[in-house]
Amino acid sequence: MPIKLRLLILNFLEFFIWGSWLITIGAYWFQNKHWSGAEFGAIFSTMGISSLFMPAIAGIIADRWINAEKLLGIFHIIGALILVYIPQINNPSTFFWVILLNMIFYMPTIALTITVGYTSLKAQNLDVVKVYPPIRVWGTIGFIVAMWVVSLLKFETNALQFYVAASAALLLGIYAFTLPKCPPQLTNTNNKSFISLLGLNAFSLFKNSKMAIFFIFSMLLGAALQLTNAYGDTFLHDFGNIDAYKNLIAVKYPAIVMSISQISETLFILTIPFFLKKFGIKKVMLFSMIAWVLRFGLFAYSNPGTGLWMIILSCIIYGMAFDFFNISGSLFVETQSDSKIRASAQGLFMMMTNGFGAFFGSYFSGLIIDKFFLLANGEKDWTGIWTTFSIYALVVALLFAILFKHKHNPQDFDLAHTL
Question: What total number of domains does the chain contain?
Answer without folding.
Answer: 1
